[in-house]
């Protein structure tokens, strides 16, 4: 709508929108603020908002006490590793479906998407058992594999949609120019698809980082990522709001920042093309 | 673009993905089916033999079953209603001209990117705690008795937490759909004298119906298996045990694997029913 | 060097037979144009020769060597696509160098050939730009450059001028013809524009629904079209074709006469009619004549400017030796 809108109307919209936005964002804001308070200040009534002596003591306590760095590192490896592995498996698959479609391509694609809809509880025990047998319980490697598998449908789907936007003629030209399949994918397809691949990586790192079923049930002391770390605060002793806030802020900060960049990818990746 | 060479290559290139997903789907599924027909209690005797459909019957006839179905319906239904209603309103709001729209979007989108364990604990402790939570301070400020959220209103608590997390998703999807609405249609109706409400009802809402359906289906699938939120807040107590959580408890906590597996099969069937509807829409779109 | 032979080549997509068994020989050094209406299979035929599609049956040989089973990379052909299909992330230089890189040529050889091609095509100033920064005509030349450096047995052009505006098209047509004279390499050119076909080709292949209607030089097709389809396709404006008593008198089912072979007069002639729309081009005038009793409209070309107004009566006389006769099956008599 390219009409001139009255300043007044725009101001009302802005006020309402910012107001609602603030309310929705408030829990996150509150958490961040509380992380800089002392425990006493954290539970103060009436609540203290901005004017207090900011302290970093919670951050250091959390880091020292629960070996936070290990949990962080696990999150990084699990989220990054599963996504990277997923990309390696998905790129060839998406290539075939996008550029050499057959009658079955659509069905296969839909089947792949449907595996994502499998309720995790339905396969919990077998996976759990398999993990024990294979010695993968509480291992980062095991979790990387599982998270790769649950995100693979989305990775393939997103790459497929991005590849479809690349004109097939350019790949044909590469073939006529004497490029082998490997060269075609390496020198022509991938450079052209970099934005799409980056977007896919972004969204899936976020999804893997936040995954809170397998990461809670298949890990114990060694391989737990940040989701498990925070879960350990569910039955605490003594005052802990400020520390919880610090731990939470550290856990969610990277993803909040990444998440801001990935709004479009979110729509593309999680609606399976049903919404444009 | 199909030659023998490229077709063979395509088949090879798809193989890893197809094999992995096939394995991921079939192997655990078959095992779950297998266990569902056995009496299997790893902690109390191990494999105790075939029991046919016994587990299936016992699962639905157990006293915990119908409450869990109710809990599931209430939670999923509640979250769907809240996220879609507010999602539509928010989407329309965000579509309006305003200053700083980018920032508002960040504020509204943010909850989706917070990991479920964090959001659950933050809500449970810092907002809903009857003694120290902000909501209790707020209630007292208005002279009311603070709500014992988790113990007295477990289902509403969970609905609030999950809705807060999923509202951004619904809003984003619906906003995308609204922005794809041809402005000319709206302008034409305006010239035809349609009031704002009429325009909303007759043009915007029907256009959104497709997107709303998609949001509904996708969210249902994911909401059926919410876990972390219950795990770290109530642990399934106070009537907050959903079907998924019940299955989880049977399998991992009480380690009645046979019973839990039967429950798992029910969950899979249920999810599949929803998935079929979703896949039909996806399939239609893929034909384009 | 660049002789291509198609032997009983057939192509079906599923149950639909797009190209029935077809034989064709393209001689070395020839500029051969595949022309025909949309959907006639000309692009498909080109792609079969290129190797981008498999033949359903039949053989293709290049320079006497069987090529039917070879992948596109091994056929020694170069193709210029309708959309140019340039690599958007590479500079012009890298685009042109790509096929040589794939062939594993040494760096200095690549450099030499690229510089050569660039100078032939006036691209030297643009070597470091990206395709996105070039105009349509420039992109065209890069696509051609990429094909030239391979020194292929034959060039394949798939409607290369369709995406250019009219003025550019004329210029590029000449450039491509020049290129052909200079390189003497076989060129197979697909177009739906019969003007391009007539002006550029040594040999024209007219296609309809996958069938070859006629093969011949432009002049042959103009003077002696084998059937009514070719007669109506070649030549602009189209040949006037009609049936009826006039045709029967000459012993044919259908007769045709080209607009440029009809003389006009205000006073007398073999046929008469009423002037409809006149198109004045300055050099010629095309008059559309109605109510002749022969057919709906007869199009006539008169040289220069003529003084006929809408609604005037006009007399037409066809040149007897230029009348084409066709039988009931539409074949030339």
Describe it for me?
The complex is a heterotrimer of chains A (about 280), B (about 290) and C (about 325). Chain A contains 13 helices and no strands. Chain A has about 280 residues and is mainly alpha-helical. Chain C is of the alpha+beta class and about 325 residues long. Chains in contact: A-B, A-C, B-C. At the A-B interface, helix 1, helix 4, helix 5, helix 6 and helix 7 of A face helix 1, helix 3, helix 4, helix 5 and helix 6 of B.
Task: Output the keywords.
heterotrimer, A: about 280 residues, mainly alpha, MetI-like fold, 2 domains, C: about 325 residues, alpha+beta, OB fold (Dihydrolipoamide Acetyltransferase, E2P), 6-stranded mixed sheet, 5-stranded antiparallel sheet, 9 helices, about 25% helix, globular
Question: In a few lines, what is going on in this structure?
Answer:
Chain A contains 13 helices and no strands.
Topology:
The complex is a heterotrimer of chains A (276), B (288) and C (333).
Chain A: H1 7-34, H2 39-42, H3 57-65, H4 68-99, H5 105-115, H6 120-134, H7 140-164, H8 168-176, H9 181-210, H10 214-217, H11 226-231, H12 241-261, H13 263-270
Helix pairs in contact in A: 1-12, 3-12, 4-7, 4-9, 5-7, 7-9, 7-13, 8-9, 9-12
Chain B: H1 4-36, E1 38-41, E2 46-50, H2 54-61, H3 65-95, H4 101-109, H5 116-127, H6 134-141, H7 149-152, H8 154-179, H9 183-191, H10 196-223, H11 228-233, H12 243-253, H13 257-286
Antiparallel strand pairs in B: 1-2
Helix pairs in contact in B: 1-13, 2-13, 3-8, 3-10, 3-12, 5-8, 8-10, 9-10, 10-13, 12-13
Chain C: E1 4-13, E2 16-26, E3 31-35, H1 42-50, E4 57-62, E5 65-66, E6 77-80, H2 92-103, H3 107-120, H4 136-148, E7 154-158, H5 166-183, E8 186-191, H6 194-200, E9 203-208, E10 211-216, H7 218-223, H8 228-233, E11 240-243, H9 245-249, E12 254-257, E13 262-265, E14 271-280, E15 284-290, E16 297-303, E17 313-318, E18 324-326
Parallel strand pairs in C: 3-8, 3-9, 6-7, 7-8
Antiparallel strand pairs in C: 1-2, 1-4, 4-5, 9-10, 11-12, 12-18, 13-17, 14-15, 14-17, 15-16
Helix pairs in contact in C: 2-3, 2-4
CATH fold assignment of the largest domain in chain C = Rossmann fold
What is the highest CATH level, the class of the largest domain in chain C?
A: Alpha Beta
Structural class by SSE content of chain C: alpha+beta
**Quick one: biggest sheet of chain C?**
6 strands, mixed
Beta-strand content bin of chain A: under 5%
Distance between the termini of chain A: 19 Å
Q: Give helix and strand order of chain C, one letter per element, not per position.
A: EEEHEEEHHHEHEHEEHHEHEEEEEEE
Query: CATH superfamily of the largest domain in chain C, called what?
Result: P-loop containing nucleotide triphosphate hydrolases
Order of helices and strands of chain A, N to C? Answer: HHHHHHHHHHHHH
Q: pLDDT average of chain C, as an integer?
A: 90
Distance between the termini of chain C: 38 Å
Structural class of chain A: mainly alpha
Number-wise, the strands of chain A total 0
How many structural domains are formed by the residues of chain A? 2
CATH level 1 name of the largest domain in chain A: Mainly Alpha
Report strand order across the widest sheet of chain C: 6-7-8-3-9-10
User: Using only CA atoms, what is the Rg of chain A?
Assistant: 23 Å
Low-confidence stretches of chain A: none
Superfamily (CATH H level) name of the largest domain in chain A: MetI-like
Number of helices of chain A: 13
